[in-house]
Amino acid sequence: MSVAERILDHKPADATAAECIAFVGDNQTHSVVDSVLREYFAEPLLKDGGPNQAIEFLSSTVPPSVLIVDVSEAASPQTAMMSLRAAIPETTKIIGIGTVNDISVYREIVDSGATDYLVKPVTEKALASALNRTEESQETPEPEVAPEEKARIAVIGSRGGVGSSTLAVNLAWILSEERKHKTALVDLDLEFGTIALSLDLEPTRGLREALENPARVDGLFISSATAKLTEKLSIMATEENLTSEIKYNPNAVDALFEALSRTNDAIVIDVPRSAYAVRRRVFETATEVMLVTELNLCGLRDSLRILSGIKEVAPDTKVRVIANRSAGPKQAMQLKDFQRALDHKVDLLLPDEPKVFNAAANTGKPLAQSHAKAKVSKVIRKLAGEIKLPEPQQPKGQKAPKKKRGLGGLFRRS
Description:
By secondary structure, this protein is an alpha/beta fold. It has helices at residues 3-9, 27-40, 51-58, 77-87, 103-111, 124-139, 164-178, 195-198, 207-212, 219-225, 251-261, 276-285, 297-313, 335-342, 354-361, 367-370, 375-385, 407-412; strands at 20-24, 45-48, 66-70, 93-98, 116-119, 151-157, 183-187, 227-228, 233-236, 266-271, 288-294, 318-326, 348-351. Helix 3 (51-58) runs parallel beside helix 4 and helix 7 (164-178) crosses helix 17.
């Protein structure tokens, strides 16, 4: 009988399963893991070693609910993780720890059976967050949404000030808070973006690094680089200084969106008109593009140019043209003339309500929240309702509240 078979068949009547067992290989990681586990579990086991020692130990004991294993000394961390996964029941959640900080390695380790993967040096906060995610996956398992069902909505303005950022913010708010889908809102204008400012948020850190170095993008990185506005709405928005050039890596767009898609049903992207390579990749990966413009000559000229660029790189992507401030003082052209010259239907008209927009701008809240009954809010709500997304999972019944483990004490320690 193999070691794996012994573990899976081992059912000693008098054995008591440890809730968590950890195998780590260095003193620094040992200290961090010991500190967190003492706060999080009643009787955790912490041992020296790696995957081989874990497999050998588990051959003679009951598998735990959570297994933490240091795979940094393994010749192939992915193979080591596959061996671990084959040797223990699916009910045991595995958190891997290693030294390789590469998104492809992260994906391979997770695909090999790990619930999460942390890169050394491991911090108390990072490990506690990983344990929280593990507990959430045990308490409320949710089927993964097929990739094709997840929305990537690119919002771009024909010119600055036409309201594309406002549309992106309110669209994301309605998708998350009213349609109840987990949504990420990403402001790709790293220097002059307004999303963090409009929501009264501190700019997040890490988005520039994500777009310059895609190898850094993993689950832990995403957690540290996003701000949670609500339980279902997370924000990535930064304000980089203007003293150095940002070296965008177009491949980073794929890595960023793939990482966000693991935990979100929808990604709303506020796309700047600069940074051509990134803009092009966003159009190529978007499920639909929303082009916001005003009904005037400048809006017409630049809408034509942007539509031409979208058709060139993503001819099959759905494009909606949205006219803002329609019937307002900035509407210099009639709708029929604008559509004829653009050779594209204007799919949506946002009414001109300057008082509503100005009042909302000073609240630090989305217009759809602070002025839910305004005409423009109703129009954006209708637009959000047309976006195809999977139905959110509804709880079948109320569960008794589970006693929280002592994480609060962990973060109160000096």
